[in-house]
Amino acid sequence: MVQVTTQVRHRTELTPQAPEPPVPKSFDDLGVPKAVVENLVIKHLAAYPKSDILQLTKLLAINSHLVEDILVDLRAKSLAEVFQASPGSFSNQSSGHVRYGLSEAGMQEADTAFIKDAYLGPVPVSLPAYSDMVKAQDVRAQMVNRADVEYALSDVLGAHRMIGVLGPAINSGRALLLYGGAGAGKTFVATKILNSLNTSVYIPYSVFAAGNIIKVFSPQHHKRVQKEEVQSIAFKEHFDRRWALCERPSIQVGGELTMEMLEVNHSEHNKVWMAPLQMMANNGIFIIDDLGRQPMPVDTLLNRWIVPMEYFYDYLNLPNGQQISIPFILTLAFSTNLDPEKISDPAFLRRLGYKIQFGPLEESEYKELWEGISEAKGLSLEEGCFEAVLDLHRKHGVSYYPCLPKDIVGISRDIIIFEEQAPVISSQVLLRAWEVYFTADGKGGGAR
Asked: Residue 32 above 60 pLDDT?
């Protein structure tokens, strides 16, 4: 199974599943201690000297009058100073034409704050607020039907054989085990699952838990539905901008996965506490690819998920020794080309809701894929070339896995460009590409 055309759901079709979080009007509404906000203001003033109210409002993503209250307190403590903007400066566009900076004592306070916690960004949301939002955005609250899944897999050859099992699997919210030969399209299909849903979700930039700020939003893993610009320092008619409205997250990790990635952590050089991958994947899908090839034993990795899969919450150990509980509301998908019976405990296999086997394409689908990928690469197949492909498969006992056309057509294109030939894949070019892709016995380089 493989993509043959590109069909992307327009972002405007996505609607938030949960009600938008209201804009906090007081420090009590923020749900975090005022001291946390004060420390953030100090750090922002250190990072962006002589900022005005509008700039600080955008950086902190809270109502402007709350920022002003903090600045009043900082000035009373002699930690902040007021600077009059020069004519024609950017600050002329903001209220009062006034900018703020740190005093010498304020800079010392900022140094102390950065040593303790290097996070710099919007004010965090509380852990209870985060938990409530994740539960409100549970994928199981909005069931998909056959038409939804057909849409999601509309550009996947052979998908009609999977829809009957994938649909119920999505609705169940339970973990999936996708297994089959390498290159059978397991991971590709897993990444398409979320396309069956037409809802967006709110992701917090950070969460305040057990006295610490945990950064959750990641541009690498989270895609905003729309560009979010604050137009008013009063935040009128806006949702709480400490949250980003995003497509449901799809996070994939393979053989590089370590147990440290599944806990809150920070590096020695960066003291920002980062959320673990499963927390970033909440309300989306978390794909663990190449199961059995991680550095830790499979049993160790699988045992990590027994409690979350059973009870839909997860315990996280913080770097300071504390422990917190967060919702575990996501689709967990394991993908492997190894025999599930040989790499996992039978008791664990029973806990997996759906075990889905992936196989090779049928010959007609395989031909359609070859033709589609060749055309997409600006190439055509010489008459009789596809029959030569089938002969190579029969000769070497290689199955019709969907990864092969993309890879072999790509190599053929490289050869054609180098040799300055017409954009046609001939039987001779095909054979050269096959020999480059596979090992000497014709099998070792690709899927079987």
From this structure: yes
